[in-house]
What we know:
The chain starts with a helix and ends with a helix. It has 6 helices and no strands. By secondary structure, it is mainly alpha-helical.
Amino acid sequence: MLTTAFSRYINNFRGFTREIWILTIITFINRAGTMVLPFLTKYLNEDLKFSYSDVGTILVFFGSGSMIGSWVGGKLADKIGFYKVMVFSLMSTGLLLFIFPFITEFSTLCIAWFL
């Protein structure tokens, strides 16, 4: 019974194009990056000594940036294509993450997490 259910589950994904698999892998990598949020709260509070109120404000900037970024990304994908938008987004986000360890001021953190 379990083998049959697993087989049916796997068969649902057969026949997808290469582009769909690439998009799936990129989305998985992108979503896996959000695992950092619980640890970000701990880092901001314990290492950088921000209050929980300040940490909450920084996370609000992150959420706002995510919502606005999704909307802007959709508009850009309609105009210039989804592939260019994804590559630019992933590359710029990856480069920006290398800068984060050096940002320790509240206002700069808010701007950085919004972006």
